[in-house]
Amino acid sequence: MAEKQSAGLLVYRLQHAVLEVFLVHPGGPYWSKKQAGHWTVPKGEFFDGEEPLAAAVREFREETGFEAEAPFLPLGSIRQKSGKMVEAWAFRGDFEADKLVSNTCMVEWPPRSGKKIEIPEVDEGRWFNLQDAKQYLREAQWPFLDRLAEAIRPS
Q1: pLDDT digit string (tens) for 104-120?
Q2: H-helix or E-strand containing 3?
Q3: Which of 58, 94, 102, 139 is deepest in the core (most CB within 10 A)?
Q4: Hey, is 137 helix, strand or coil?
């Protein structure tokens, strides 16, 4: 079985000379009360033969309803605690967080109940400065923040 892999996009903007990033919160009852340490870069799985950046752009649109625009800055890969590899790119953009519209998916809830419910993949998006982003973002994804800050640091 192939290793699970995801691709995602980290949107950034400069607000009054402060670097901010756009993160999303997973939807559904399991995540409803989980905040700090549970937000993520908009991302999704891709499969062998699928171009990772194209998958990242597709997943970003599906999870946020927003369009990503080149140029894309490679941020490399990280391995999450689950073992899944995540590859990410950054791009400069500015979206109104409250206009986020996510696709939905079916999940079994409560677990092992046999009952299926439809949930949004993402239930919220928000802009964070880097310090706050590290409080909310999954720790395994912190290197993306550091790599972005390094890449856009004025020379």
Answers
A1: 999 999 999 999 999 99
A2: none
A3: 102
A4: strand
pTM summary value: 0.94
| Strand residue runs (E) in the chain | 5-15, 18-26, 43-45, 73-79, 85-92, 104-108, 116-120, 122-129
Phi and psi, residue 131, nearest 5°: -65, -50
Residue 91 has a CB neighbour count (10 Å cut-off) of 17
Q: Where are the domains of the chain?
A: 5-152
Reported as type and span, the H/E element at residue 111 is none
The residue assigned the tokens 């991302």 is 43
* Residue 151 to residues 6, 72, 90, 95, 113, Cα–Cα distance (Å): 22, 12, 10, 22, 47
Tokens at 64, concatenated: 């946020």
Tell me the β-bridge partners of 44: 7
Domain 5-152 CATH assignment equals 3.90.79.10? yes
